[in-house]
Design a protein that fits this description.
The chain is of the alpha/beta class. It folds into two domains: about 5-140, 3-Layer(aba) Sandwich (Creatine Amidinohydrolase, Chain A, domain 1); about 145-395, Creatinase/methionine aminopeptidase superfamily (Creatine Amidinohydrolase). The chain is built from ten helices and 16 strands. It has helices at about 5-15, 30-35, 85-95, 120-125, 135-145, 145-175, 185-195, 265-290, 295-310, 390-395; strands at about 20-25, 50-55, 60-65, 75-80, 100, 130-135, 200, 205-210, 235-240, 250-255, 350-355, 355-360, 365, 370-375, 380, 390. The strands form four sheets. A six-stranded mixed β-sheet has the order 4-3-2-1-5-6, sandwiched between helices. Strands 7, 8, 9, 10 and 16 form a five-stranded mixed β-sheet that branches. Strands 11-14-15 form a three-stranded antiparallel β-sheet, with helices on one face. It starts with 5 loop residues before the first helix and ends with a helix.
Length: about 400
């Protein structure tokens, strides 16, 4: 059976003044649907629809070739074969409904939620129904963590932090002994440590030296990997989750200098980024303690304001943070008033990154932590970097 909380969803729909929430999938394009409905993906070469009305029994529409697609969900099942029959049956299911939520985002402002194709939205609109974004609903029913989710995050965090420290130690030992080492060598060692400690990641970690650290999403390959030598600046962006069902990610960025004393220029830029990071964190903590509504775009403004006041606003080229969940970029509120304006409220039991950065031509600095929101507070879930790591001095 499904683990969906039908009663809670319907209560929320009524409170929001919506007639229902319409789920739709084809070729597994919408992982959110499966997570909210609490079902495992099955073969999906034909379109299916599942309507949770604000009142009454849910309805499902499946192709006769794939009758079992939604078998574990409650509700009356309707079937179709032809495209004409599909539209007729969908119209019957939606009759009397005026406003429905779907995984849609106006202007695609929140692409993590904008998973239903434009044609399907047009089809539903043509049946006399206004489609609105399910973004707030998704955050409530897919973005919030259970106690088990939080525990998996903290467990992954231990491995991720250990991998970062091991990477700095690997660089230290190689440089001190005169052994050649490069970005990709460190990246592959982190991957090996992940495998040995039961965590996985959707992509390889970022190990970026000097000018490569000025590219926020640089990742070394055999062809691009730079050597790591004395007096180099190193950025590590490392994320992973446990190899267990429903595990959620842990995602951090640290920086170091291959020397015993960090040059003033690196210290200066790191300090600005640190202040921006801490301003964002403090805003979240204060709002939660005061019970004051806080939205993702406000957190971005707090961090961005610090960097702008120091004269580096044009070098902060991405949002302040992203939601974290089963996907490293989750479906809850993002800390963003730059790439988009995320007006979603920050709610308890959600987690997101705070990762301001300054990216100059010769190097880039980013400091990333994860913030977990509690009922009346918020906290950083791992270690907090307070200064650039002097790799040849700090790890003796």
């Amino acid at each position: 059976m499904s683990s969906m909380n039908l009663t809670a969803i319907q209560t929320t729909l009524r409170d929001a003044g919506l007639d229902g929430w319409l789920f739709y999938d084809h070729h597994h394009r919408d992982p959110i649907a499966y997570r909210v409905l609490g079902i495992a993906p099955k073969i999906c070469t034909r379109r299916w629809y599942y309507l949770i009305p604000a009142e009454g029994e849910p309805a499902k529409l499946v192709h006769r070739v794939e009758k079992g697609s939604l078998a574990s969900l409650p509700g009356t099942e309707h079937e179709y074969s032809s495209w004409k029959e599909q539209r007729e049956r969908l119209g019957e299911i939606l009759r009397g409904k005026k406003t429905l939520a779907m995984q849609y985002s106006p202007l695609n402002d929140i692409p993590y939620v904008g998973l239903v194709d434009a044609g399907t939205v047009e089809l539903v609109n043509s049946l006399g129904v206004e489609v609105v974004s399910s973004a707030d609903l998704v955050q409530l029913f897919e973005g919030r963590w259970s106690d088990e989710d939080l525990a998996s995050h903290l467990e992954a965090g231990k491995v991720v932090h250990a991998a970062v420290h091991a990477a700095f130690a690997m660089i230290r030992d190689a440089v001190r002994t005169g052994k050649a080492i490069g970005e990709r060598d460190v990246q592959q060692e982190i991957i090996r440590l992940f495998e040995a400690n039961g965590v996985i990641a959707d992509e390889a970690p970022i190990v970026a030296v000097n000018t490569h650290s000025a590219n926020p999403h640089y990742s070394p390959t055999r062809e691009t990997s730079l050597p790591i030598r004395p007096d180099d600046f190193v950025l590590l962006d490392v994320w992973a989750k446990r190899k267990t069902p429903r595990a959620v990610y842990f995602d951090i960025t640290w920086t170091g200098f291959v020397g015993e004393e960090v040059p003033r220029r690196y210290v200066e830029i790191f300090e600005i980024v640190r202040k921006a990071r801490d301003a964002a964190i403090e805003l979240v903590k204060q709002a939660m303690r005061e019970g004051r509504p806080l939205h993702g775009h406000e957190v971005d403004d707090a961090a961005r304001g610090v960097i702008t006041r120091h004269g580096y606003g044009e070098y902060f080229v991405h949002r302040t943070g992203h939601s974290i969940g089963e996907d490293v970029h989750g479906s809850g509120a993002n800390m963003d008033n730059f790439e988009t304006r995320d007006a979603r409220r920050i709610i308890p039991r959600t987690c997101f990154s705070v990762e301001p950065g300054i990216y100059l031509s010769e190097f880039g600095v980013r400091s990333e932590v994860n913030v977990y929101v509690e009922e009346h507070d918020a906290r950083v879930t791992g270690e907090v970097q307070e200064a650039v790591v002097p790799i040849l001095a700090a790890l003796r």
